[in-house]
Amino acid sequence: MRRLLIAALSLVLSAVALGAAPPALAAGTPPDPVVFVHGANADPGVWGEMRADFVRAGYPEDRLAAWSYDTRQSTNEVLSGRLASYVDAVLARTGASRVDIVAHSLGSLPSRWYVKFGGGADKVGHWASLAGPNHGTTTAWACALWNQACKDMTPGSYVLKRLNSGDETPGATRYGTWSSPCDGVIVPVSSTELAGAVNTRAEGCPTHSGLLTDDTVSRQVRAFLARP
Q1: Which of 171, 173, 189, 203 is the most buried (most CB within 10 A)?
Q2: Bridge partners of residue 128, in order along the sequence
Q3: Is the dihedral of CA 37, 41, 45, 47 positive or negative?
């Protein structure tokens, strides 16, 4: 019996260390809706596998939404306002009082701007950034002259200076970031991390796009959103 108890405890501790998913969602207590925000030159379809993971974990389909936007438009002047309207529509449809945001790459910038400057502080419970260029990426210089997304992602851009001025994680929103040393797009990798956030380096060295389909990252994101 003692050996069985030790073995069971070992399994529990191993699951915690690997970022196991939180317990199944309780019946009758729908989770906050999740708004997925894709990156540059992408569309909501990139969230297919992660959305399926959320459904298997107990999220109702109608609590999962993916915002589609034109990545050629400016983060601060256009996109953050359009995200605000989208979030309001999700709240009205679901009757929820707040949403959680899960963003990939460029999507981290308009969603951060919305939380910090666009009225989202009281409407976003958790903000999760996968491979976000939160302090810029040197790879963006290659297309900054003609591409607005690249311009916004260059180190020292107007958008990044404003987002990182003062408190990088303001308000009651909980912030989490995920990065990978094998990203290859966000250079340096540490750019994703924010002061005051739960900053996680992904296991197994997934690529920039691989973070979207990594099982461990998906479990960790769900566990993060479950935090009160």
Answers
A1: 173
A2: 102, 176
A3: negative
